[in-house]
Design brief:
There is one protein chain. The protein contains eight helices and ten strands. It is an alpha+beta fold. It has three domains: 97 residues; 178 residues, Thiolase/Chalcone synthase (Peroxisomal Thiolase, Chain A, domain 1), CATH 3.40.47.10; 46 residues, no CATH class. It has a six-stranded mixed sheet with strand order 5-4-6-7-1-8, sandwiched between helices. The chain is rod-shaped.
Length: 334
């Protein structure tokens, strides 16, 4: 679940201690009143008996003052202990949530396929940063009209099942070396994020077939409560201590409304920083911050920078996109 430090209640203010001057002044006043009243109403016999006279004149006011002062001090101590316990627990929660928010995953390997595919990762990255556009004209799925869209140059004249199989196979080829370098006691979890005109059962069948053809180690499917980056959030919360890796396979292929869309496929091999030490990571994936509106933009970016932590001047690039549903995504690259 997302970490929201701003939802933690404010600290309790400590109560002010009893004012000593006021209480001492009250004691002197009570002693004076006690002596005055005793002098006015005491009998002659009591007035002649000094110890009894002063004991009654000063003892009763002093006893009443001590009783009231004790109750006041007990009330102060109770309020102080309550506020102190609340503030200590609050600091513990802030520290705990900060540590949870600053969890990160290692990126051990990745593979990307788009219409911008170059001969090397550096060439593809340069094309991305230069914001090159590859919008070509293709016939739509019904073959009736033409649309402008960006297409992965893989078996473009074949059915979607054949294209998806070939795309996943190429992703596995890039990821395969790192999978075999993992310690033998590590579990491989695969998260499928496939957006294609195929049923879930068909997608799982294609994945299993290509996984077996590639001769990869045994793996199991990982199911997240929500799609997208929420899956990374869930993994950071619940599986950060496990000896396991998360292989994210994300494919966006042949959308139903293809006009001005871009096909893409990505394989991302993620590992836990606390348990994986055999391989050197390429980079770190910090906890994502979900921003649902423009009002949250500034606070969301500030919080994301604090999770790393990194200074604003260390940011070298920002990548953003917008889905067909109008949802915007933005990635800050330090």
């Amino acid at each position: 679940m997302p970490v929201r430090l701003n939802t933690i209640p404010d600290a309790e203010s400590y109560p002010a201690p009893p004012a000593r001057i006021k209480w001492l002044s009250a004691l002197l006043l009570m002693l004076f009143v006690g002596v005055a009243i005793t002098s006015l109403f005491a009998s002659d016999e009591l007035a002649k008996n000094g110890p009894h006279f002063w004991g009654l004149a000063c003892g009763v006011p002093a006893f009443i003052w001590s009783l009231v002062a004790s109750v006041r001090w007990l009330f102060f101590i109770t309020q102080y202990i309550r506020a102190d316990a609340w503030n200590k627990r609050r600091e513990e929660v802030i520290l705990q949530e900060t540590r949870r928010g600053r969890r990160a995953l290692q990126i051990l390997s990745f593979s990307v396929q788009t219409a911008l595919n170059g001969d090397s990762v550096a060439e593809t990255t340069t094309a991305f940063l230069a914001r090159q556009q590859v919008l070509n004209t293709y016939a739509d799925l019904r073959g009736e009209d033409t649309v402008r869209r960006s297409v992965i140059p893989v078996l473009t004249n074949k059915p979607v099942t054949g294209r998806l199989s070939e795309i996943i196979s190429r992703l596995f080829i890039d990821i395969r070396p790192q999978l075999f370098l993992l310690p033998p006691d590590f579990h491989i979890n695969v998260l499928l994020e496939i957006d294609a005109p195929l049923s879930g059962a068909s997608v799982r069948t294609i994945w299993q077939d290509e996984w077996q053809k590639a001769g990869l180690p045994e793996a199991r499917l990982f199911s997240a409560p929500e799609p997208g980056l929420a899956a990374v959030d869930d993994w950071l919360d619940n599986f950060i201590q496990e000896k396991a890796v998360l292989l994210v396979i994300s494919v966006y292929l042949e959308p139903k409304t293809p006009e001005r869309t871009a096909e893409s496929s990505t394989a991302l091999l993620l590992a836990n920083r606390l348990t994986q030490t055999a391989l050197t990571p390429l980079a770190l994936l910090h906890r994502p911050e979900r921003i649902t509106d423009t009002e949250m933009m500034a606070s969301g970016i500030a919080q994301a920078l604090d999770w790393m932590p990194v200074q604003p001047d260390a940011i070298s690039g920002i990548w953003d996109c917008r889905t067909g549903q109008g949802t915007a995504y933005r990635v800050v690259i330090p």
